[in-house]
Amino acid sequence: MPLMHRLAVLLVLAFAAVSASAANTTARLLLSHTSAKPGETVWAGVLLQMAPKWHTYWENGGDSGAATKVDWTLPAGITAGEILWPVPEKYEAAGLITYVYHDEIVLLIPLSVAPSATAGKADLSALASWLECSELCLPAKSKVAASLTIGTESVTSPQAARIEAAKKALPQPKPSSFAKAWWESAADGDKRPLLIEWPVTAGALESDFFPHTSTNVTVSASTEFVATNAGTIRLRKQVEKLGATWPSEIAGVIVQREPGAETLSASFIKLAIGDTSSATPSSTPSALGNVETKSLFAWLAYAFLGGLILNVMPCVLPVIALKILGFVSQSRENPKRVRTLGLLYTLGVLVSFLILSGIIIGLRLAGQKAGWGIQFSNPQFVIVLAVVVTLVALNLFGVFEVTLGGGALDAASEAASRHGGGGAFMNGVLATVLATPCTAPFLGAALGFASVQPAPVIVLFFLTIGLGLAFPYLLLSWNPTWLKFLPKPGAWMERFKVAMGFPMLATALWLWCLTCNVSVKPALESKAVLEKLAGINALGLVADYTSYSPVISAELERFGRGGVPLVVVYPADASQPPLVLPEPLPYPAPYTPTILEALGKAVK
What we know:
Helices cover 37% and strands 25% of the residues. It is an alpha+beta fold. Strands 13, 14, 15, 16, 17, 18, 19, 20 and 21 form a 9-stranded mixed sheet that branches. A 5-stranded mixed sheet has the order 5-10-11-2-12, covered by helices on one side. It has a 4-stranded antiparallel sheet with strand order 1-3-9-6. A hairpin with a 7-residue loop joins strand 14 and strand 15. It is elongated. It starts with a helix and ends with a helix.
């Protein structure tokens, strides 16, 4: 391409960029006063008004973007301070996280009038430059100007109310004692994980830390939330060193949205960074096999795996009888119908988990603590479910001639035991309901992590658990050729059906936590554990969660668990953190050795 042609193209593009930028964001200069006395401070506000879908940036742009700049031209006797930045939005697009402003924003700058300033009219002007982005990003700038009279009296301007509103949008300072920060581990090259913790309002819908820019480090815009004690929030930020030494402090804004609030509240804070031992024992619950510092993806994997394991937990195992019999009878059917039934079963599971997540979120918004299996604290619910499960067991035994007035319970149990579309959906619902008294391995910790997350994350976790619960049946229904490995229909089905009626009946007799009764309680009452407790002069304490005690709920949340069972061993040395035992494996895996191992560690 000829040189002149290339220059012409560049000039056209530059002109197009300037023209486009002028239409996307406009700038004005606001003043709090029309007249001020020498020695006073006047507030200036650069008002940026963005077109729909366009945004400008906070003082820290995040993964991309650049802060707005204001270059002043001022008369002698007037000096400008630094820009005071309102709370931004955290914005994610194309895998990048940035801190932005949409619609309009007022950037406040204090203007100091010197005591020796000359009386009369003072012309104030500035060149505001910014980066505005939507589908693409464009640099833009505009000159703004206003006049101020310096005299013997102070007169507010018509824009004073708008300036005051902008002041209220600024982060309010917090003392450094409000929060703490410490390095989580040693550096890996020029990168190092930083933990930040502070007390959080109960039921807060959003919490985060927006770091200020620094000349010697880069702090990641992405945030990893770490499970911790009740009433506090802990998060991880990845820090990259740009200079020769690691920083000794970090400054930024703690943001939070409380229940019922439309906007984020924010607090500016500057924290000294402690070393890797700065976490106090009470706020760092240790665990055998502790997994509290996983990424969001890892927590979701734990949720899926926990849902998968629920299929073999004592509370869900009886429902497998219905599904196995159903798959055997479907083995000769049209593959399309088998897939449809698998999808309906999965839909029943996911809809049920979606409803459960809605209940949990609703209770949190009402200021109550809500955990896994909360519905089993309601005696009426337990009675109705026990009757339904009993009727299903009777159906498996072949004695389902019992009829009850109204037919509602008959219809429910019959729907759950037939093999059509309605039966497949109701099997999914029943499997979900029976799963909630149990916390499978990996599931309790994942639920504990999800319990302190925003509502969308809670919904995502519950749906992931449901997908794990439904996955074996969904996989089998979409691979009908695998059904040929199942036994052919025959007389054995009736015997198997009757045999599986017994665990279903046991479920009806044992509705609260089956894992507690089948694995944990027998282990705690075992001869080996009782002798160990006596030998080390220790005392065992059992808390009953049947009535959904708020005190127990608070303890579950404090140790990062979403439901029972929870076994905690307190060491003899009170300065050491308690040991949080992992969830028991499905019965008949013994839990006694796990408890004995923890008791042995507690006395060292």
